[in-house]
Give the backbone structure.
Amino acid sequence: MNYDKIVLFESERIKLTKKVISKSYAKIILFGEHSVVYGQPAIALPLYSVDVHAEISLEPSGQTLSSRYYEGPIADMSNNLLGVKTLIDHILNELGKSSANFKMTITSQIPSERGMGSSAATAIAITRALYQYFDVPLNREKLLKEALIEEKITHGNPSGIDTATASSHFPIWFIKHKENAQITFNLADYNLVIADSGIKGKTADAVSLIARNMVDDSDNTKPLIDDLGRIATEAKRAIITGDGSKIGDLMYQSQQRLHDLGVSTPTLDKLVSTSKKAGALGAKLTGSGLGGCMIALTDSTTTAQRLATELRKAGATQTWIQSFKNYGFNGEKQNDNVVQ
Ligand code: PMV
């Protein structure tokens, strides 16, 4: 028997069936949206139950993408997916694989334009998958830098908090260009209810509205931004000590500042007041606002379930309940050197 031939066939079979799958998470900003753009601290967490998968498999010819928005050759992708296309082209070029043949399939549970970091999570999953497929090591710093290529096209002037959270396995404390660290999280008995207002958030509009007001109306705007930073710093202490009532109070304070900045909406305001009436410890919009999602903190699963029902009755189109049971600090470091 020709064993060489069998070994060759086996390696060819592996090559022909080569497939990788990478994932990333939806993100929720607990504290510090908008103020994070101006150097204030923010706290955000990955939603373990809402994720994106990017799968790459070998194809006999061409480069194609299959996703909920597009089906076909990557070269023909339309302008509304320019960020994703630019990212893929950039990485292929950088890795010297511009003429490789493959099919990429993106499966996402994250609703788009709802402040849950859909585009950032997609960029992270794509970057991880491409590096993994071509067997090139990828550290966290490089991962975040690559993903930002897509975010800059899709969002204009991102602080980087979305990509930092979508790629994290833990809640993070984030200061633009300065800190991106795992945060001690002692809230195992609490739950977060997330509700979709059913209206698309408008990140670029909301960010530029505040940028304009920082120039034209800085006497009113800057103190609100600074105060959001102060709230995030107080919230960090309360999260470390597990003080749910304090965190809830800070969420209501934060909502008031975001409302005063002009990025809440009547629907988001209504969902926040519904949460208060239904016994939430705190509630606020999350992400850019002008639509998108809101979040509410509860101290029991029963209250969380009741609240989710109330929020849907009040007009939320979708709700999620995320327990904080698995968010505790466990001493593990983010794996900086391996593609995950
Ligand atoms: O993309 P969104 O809606 O999750 O908002 C991102 C958070 C902002 O602080 C509003 C902008 C940023 O880049 O930090």
